[in-house]
Amino acid sequence: MRIKKKVLSIAIAVCAFVTFIGFTLACESQSGEQQETVIEQAEEVETGEEEVKYGLTEAERKQAFYDLAELQDSVPFEDEDWAEKQEEAYVTIAEKNGIREEEVRNIVIEGIEKDWPMPEVEE
Predict the structure, then answer these.
(1) Residue 57 pLDDT greater than 90, yes or no
(2) What is the pTM of this model?
(3) DSSP assignment string, 83-122
(4) Would the pLDDT of 50 be above 50?
(5) What are the boundaries of each domain within the chain?
(6) Edge-to-edge strands of the sheet including 45-47?
(7) How far apart (Å, rounded) are the C-alpha atoms in residues 119 and 19?
(8) What does the alpha-carbon distance between residue 16 and residue 38 come to, in Å, rounded to a whole number?
(9) How far is residue 12's CA from residue 109's CA, in Å, rounded to a whole number?
């Protein structure tokens, strides 16, 4: 099962990287005014001691990261729709938190960079 967790971690990292590249390319292809809007949406907003991104506090983003990992871990590798269900998990978490799918992918990047906790994988 450790291999399964490592494979899942690698898969999440690859998805996050691909999302980051797509986001970067999208920003580069937009006009100046549109690009500023996208950048403003992604910037951190300081409110007291708690940083807010995408309308979520860091604690809420950590929970979204955890929930995504838990949801994706619940799909067995043997499931013939495994890849599709991994992608559907992003939509589910986005809807649950009232954010866009791209923002969930950015939260995954943040979670990986900050080494946020993930659910224990059952062996």
Answers:
(1) yes
(2) 0.60
(3) HHHHHHHHHHHHHHHT--HHHHHHHHHHHHHTT---PPPP
(4) yes
(5) 2-113
(6) 45-47, 50-53, 56-57
(7) 22
(8) 18
(9) 9
Contact 92, 71 (CB under 8 A): yes
Q: How many CA atoms lie within 13 A of 86 on its CB side?
A: 19
Question: Tokens for 39?
Answer: 């950048």
How many whole angstroms from its chain centre is CA 54?
Answer: 12
Q: Which residue has the tokens 């971690």?
A: 9
Top pLDDT among 19 and 51 is at 51
Q: Which whole number is the average pLDDT over 4-19? A: 56
Q: Residues 38, 12, 111, 76: is their CA dihedral positive or negative?
A: positive
Kindly give, in sequence order, each residue whose CB lies less than 8 Å from that of residue 50, ignoring residues fewer than 6 positions away.
57, 58, 59
Whether residue 46 is predicted with pLDDT greater than 60 in this model: the reply is no
CB 89 within 8 A of CB 8: no
Average pLDDT over residues 35-60: 64
The whole-number pLDDT of residue 60 equals 95
Give the list of residues 6+ apart from residue 51 with CB closer than 8 angstroms, or none: 44, 45, 57, 58
Length of the chain: 123
